[in-house]
C-alpha cells in the first residue's frame, strides 16, 4: 500500500505545528517545570508545545484521511452533477463560519455590552455550527454559560469585565 499526500497544505501545516511544538517544548524544558499545583516558568510553554504537537499530528493525519473521503465524494458529485460539489464545499464551511462569527461577536460585545450578552451571542452563534440545532438546549446552555462565566470570571476572579451593559 502506497501512502500519498494529496492535501499538501494540511500536511505541511501539520508538520509545522509539530516542529514548532517540539521546539517550544525543548526550549521550555530548559526552565524549571514545577508541578500542576506549583507551576514553574517552563510548565505552561511545555504544555502548549505538547498540545501543538498533538494538534499537528491530527491535522497532518486528517489531511491523508480526508483526501480519500474527498475523492469518493468527488466521484459521487460528478455523478450527480457539478452543482452538488459546490454545495458540499459550502456545507463544510458552516462550522467555521458560525464559530468564527461567535468569537467575533464575543470580542465585539464583551467590552461594551457585558459578559452575559457576549456569552449568549457566542453560544447561540456557535451552536448553529451544528446541522441539527435544538434551540431549547442552546438557550439553556447559553444561560448556564453566561451565569457560570460571570460567576467565575467577574466575581470569582475579579476580572475587570462588565457583567451587564452599562
Commentary on this structure:
- By secondary structure, this protein is mainly α.
- It has two domains: 80 residues; 85 residues, no CATH class.
- 76% of the residues lie in helices and 0% in strands.
- The model has no long low-confidence stretch (mean pLDDT 80).
List keywords for this structure.
membrane, 166 residues, mainly alpha
Number of strands: 0
So what's the oligomer here?
Answer: single chain
Percent of residues in helices comes to over 70%
Output the structural class: mainly alpha
Biggest pleated-sheet summary: none
Which descriptor suits the 3D outline? flat
Query: Into which percentage range does the β-strand content fall?
Result: under 5%
What is Rg? 21 Å
Low-confidence stretches: none
Question: In sequence order, what are the helices and strands, one letter per element?
Answer: HHHHH
Note the total helix count: 5
The structural domain count equals 2
C-alpha end-to-end distance: 63 Å
* Average pLDDT level: 80
